[in-house]
Every structure is written in C-alpha cells, then in structure tokens.
Amino acid sequence: MRTTQLLIGDQWVDAATGATSETMNPATGEVIGQFADGGKADVDAAVDAASDAFESDAWRSISPDARGKMLWRVAELLEENAEEIAALETLDQGQPAFVSRNISLPLAAQVFRYYAGFATKLEGKISPVSIPHQLSLQHREPIGVAGLITPWNFPLDIAAWKLAPALATGNTAILKPAEQTPLSTVRLAELCREAGIPAGVVNVVTGGPEVGKALVAHPGVDKISFTGSTAVGQEIVRTAAVDLKRVGLELGGKAASIICDDADIDAAVMGNLHGALFNTGQACGAFTRFFVHRSRADEFVSKLAAAANALKVGPGQDPATVVGPLVSEDHLNRVDGFVKSGIEQGAQLVTGGSRAGGALKNGFFYKPTVFTEVKDDMTIAREEIFGPVLSVMPYDDLDEAVARANSTSYGLVGVIWTQDLQLAHKLPPRIKAGTVFVNQLPLIDPGSPWGGIGLSGWGRELGSYSIDEYTETRSVFINLG
Ligand code: NAD
Questions:
Q1: DSSP letter at 246?
Q2: Tell me, what's the pLDDT at 2?
Q3: How many domains, in total, are found in the chain?
C-alpha cells in the first residue's frame, strides 16, 4: 500500500482540502495506493511554484550543459530503479511485466537521455533580410509553465515524452497523471528532485478531471500538452481558446491494417495480433481494423483466432502473461458494451466475446476477441474501443481498401502488409495517418515523431519535433546602419 502526496515547489504536501482517492490493482481489484486528490487550490499553488521557478536564476540561467546533465541523471535513476518502477507500473496499470520491464521503463530512460542531448543543441538562426543594414537573429525560447496531462495506458512513458523535452528547452512543468494510475508519475517526480532539478521546476498534482480542467483554464499556464480521449481534447481546445495558450493534443485512434493479397500471412497474423493486443489493446496506436484481401481472409481469420486463443491471459506480474487486465471495471464494461453492439449489429464473433472467469474473475480481464465480416458502419468499426477486440473486414480491391481504411475521423496509425516493394512505397502516402508501419508492429522510438491528424490530434511528440512544441521563436533585429 503506497500513500502519495502532491509535489508543489520543494514540498510534498496533502491536497489543500485533505481529500484522498484510491488506486487499485486491475488484476485483483484490490486497493494498492492512496493518493492526494488535488483541486483548484492545489493547481493555483503549483502554477505559482512553477512560475517562480521559471523566473528564478536557478533555472533560467542554468547552463544548457547543466540542464542536460540533470536530464541524463533522471535517465540513470530510472535505470537504477528499473525493477521497482516497472513493478509499480504493472501493479497500478496492469501492464504485462514484459511490457513494463522491456518497453515502458527503458523507453522512458531513453527519452530522457535523448532530450538531455538537445539541451545543448537548441541553435538559433541568422536570416537574410532585404532591409539594408539589419541583422535578423532568431532564438528559441522556452514557452513558460507547461501543464502536462496524461492518460492511464502508458503513464510513465507519456509523462516522459512530455516532461523531458519541456525541461530540455527550459520550461517548468506541472504533471497531472490520470486518476487511475498516478503512482509511477509521482515516482518520476521524486527522481527528478533526486537528479538535482531545482524545486518548482517539476510539480505534480494528482487527482481527477477537475485538476486537468483547472490547469487548462489557469491564465498562468502557457502551454498544455494533453494525451487522452478526443472528447476531452476538444473540450481543452474550447477552454484554451480564451487566452489562446499553446496546446498539443495526442488523442484517440482507430488504426487500419491493410493485408494485401501477396502478404506473408503468418507474419501478418503475428504482427497484427501483437499490434492489436499490445498492452491488452489499451494503446492509441493499437491495430483494430484488419482489411484483408478476400482471397486470404479465411486463412487470416482462422490463424488469427487460433493465435489469439493461445495467448496467456493473466496478471501482469506473471512473466508468461501476454494479455493483462483492462485498467478498471468501468473500462471493462465499456469494452463489453462494444462487443455486444458488434454482435447485435451482425458481425460474426469468431472467438472471445466475454470477461475471463475462473481464477481471473476478480480482475478486469477480457478474452481476446476476434470478429469477422465487420461492416464499415458498425460501431466496432468506427469507435475507439481501447481493448482486445479485433475486427476483420474483407476487401476485393486495393483502392477500395485504402478508401475504407481512410473512412474514419481518426488519423494516428496505418499499417500495410505486402511483399511488393513498390506497394510498400506507394501505399503509405495514401494512408491518412501520422505514422504508417509497413510489415511492422507498432514501434515507438525517441527519435521518431508520434502524433495524429484529424480527431487524433495536433502536433507531434518525440524526435526533434517536440522541440517546436515547447519553444517559441524570438526574432531580434539589430540596426547596423
Ligand atoms: P481521458 O481523456 O479520459 O483522460 C486523460 C487525462 O485527462 C486524465 O489525466 C484525466 O484526468 C484528464 N481529464 C479528464 N477530463 C479532463 C478535462 N475536461 N480537462 C482536462 N483534463 C481532463 O483519457 P483516458 O481514458 O485516460 O485515456 C484513454 C485515451 O487516451 C484514449 O482515447 C487513447 O487513444 C488516448 N491516448 C492517446 C495517445 C496518443 O499518443 N495519441 C496515447 C495514449 C492514449
């Protein structure tokens, strides 16, 4: 049982109201932690602390080398405490241990190291201007106080994607983790302090949606970076319109995977299965709609269903587990509602379709579920399910497949399976998505941008693209006349 507080300035404190909430292990339904349930007063205090730190000499005049060193040290501390933090992520989020240990934890450390390097490479420009006797210089400046609001599916990684570039570029930050999974973010903030990042530069306000709303509405917050649902992203844009604060949005997805008639079906089955069920389908880039050439559809469906059935469903702590629990009972009921709608609307259920019972009955486990003959207008083909539900949709002609893959308001990820080199180059530009994978599982690398178009959001995280997200460009004219 862990008890956590808010980090405001140099103090770990309770919520101003004294309120607390509980977080649970989704594999058992047991309470594993109690966290301070912050509110508007706590956000006000955190914004004051972050604004003071932004203006302070301790942060503003710190050398790029020293800033980079601190971020590098956070990466080292993540690695030194890897076992403990990965176990915490599995406990709070439900992630299978192979995900928390081999992906979430190393990726968070890599992201800090990647942006540690950027701290010393934020170069400016001299632009040629036509006005005589003028020198036009451009500098990158930090934006100010960044409110970083994260979801529950990859709490540590998504906090790292936001915090590391925000700090590398000289901003100060307030982290607001999801109320279902606050523990690893609080731990990350502890490591930031241990790494020597000055007080007030990193703050954490745990709590529910009210904390996020207060951050977005606060005039002292200069930038919001949000990862979460599209509906909340839209609400954030409406609120942020009042003072036109900078907003970055990583929202939902409904990735289509096109399996061409020449695809290596066994590779496509394994790649799509794991692309769909990575973190139990609770991934914005999860592969969800499988457009399979009709000539290969029966083979694909039967192999996919057999492989899905063979996967070990169980608690994340079990190293053999591939499919862990869903994050909460509410979310499990939501996923089950989608599955029921698929059956009612006439999709053919091939396997799964219900909560897992037996020894798993107290946790929030759902059997990997495969539908075939899914029509484009069915709810399961249109809405983001965020669970272990795979919809196979046979097609006859490649142009038809591309048009159907693109007939969604989301645009985060697209996938192509083909052995034809020309198609591998020709199809990706036709797919409406921020990232296209060819013969590939969903991959995330600190050096490669991530983000969507349409209802999947605004802007790009990771890579050098994040530097743009966290800086303003200042132009200076010097009169040389
Ligand atoms: P959510 O939108 O319900 O909540 C996300 C965060 O926003 C939480 O911290 C929550 O407390 C806070 N919040 C809720 N209402 C708010 C409001 N009105 N104003 C400000 N903050 C508010 O999302 P979720 O259920 O935690 O996460 C699942 C969603 O996240 C899915 O839609 C998924 O696709 C998306 N996601 C996207 C990416 C990406 O990179 N595109 C990555 C991971 C998850």
A1: E
A2: 94
A3: 2
